[in-house]
Design brief:
By secondary structure, the chain is an all-alpha fold. The longest helix has about 35 residues. Helix 3 crosses helix 9. Helices cover about 75% and strands about 0% of the residues.
Amino acid sequence: MRTIALLTGLPALFFVAFFLAPMAVVAIASLTNPAGELTAANYVRILLDRYHWDVLWVTFRIGALTTIACVLIGYPLAWYLVRVVKWPLWRRACVILLIVPLFTSNIVRSFGWMVLLGRNGLINDGLVASGLIERPMRFIGTETGILIGLVYILLPFVVLAVGNALAKVDPSLEQASADLGATPAATFWTITFPLSLPGLMAGGIMVFMLAVSAYVTPALLSGGRITVFSMLIFQQYSSVFDFHYGGALSITMLVLTLILVALAGRIGEPKGGSR
């Protein structure tokens, strides 16, 4: 009995100490002023200032576009790795190539994209050499540049989640569908895709939450021209040292993100799944 209490108590204590306690500190700071008095002034300041809504719109737009791009690229890539590749060694090599960048720092990967996306970088040189554009395009300092960097960093999350879901689909269901006369496309849309949807939703939600909370990649690839909400939060904590206002920004971001994730979960929930 003591062993069970110890095995469950330690993780619970770790969760309270390192997850709930810091969150409670931020929430309390957001609801107080420097004198320690309760106030909602920080939230009123955020919600009544149009600048914050504009930054939120940019942040969630980049997060949504990153999620859509990762889903559109990640699902076919996961399908290729799970259903097309028959040689285990090649599949393993592809997975290793996919996840190796995750072992490097976001700063290193973002600096790499700064070099590639620069006016004299490899991307512009290739586009000019192929005749697609006449002069180098500006990627650094645009939402396109931030989008490219975030998709590169977050794509593995969708591929791994969808690949795991596809690997768990029972082949007998697809064989039964084919035996009943369904075309491969009909089998995919009525059997395979619905069964892989939980993995797709899990990967999409992870990518969206990581994209809207990302700081390093937008800060480096924005070139100071674009501001996302995480940059405002960082400024309040590191430069202005207004922990109360920074806490209110953090809680606002967290609440809005959770609302959007909950809405996405409701939309993606299979019909009759709640019964």
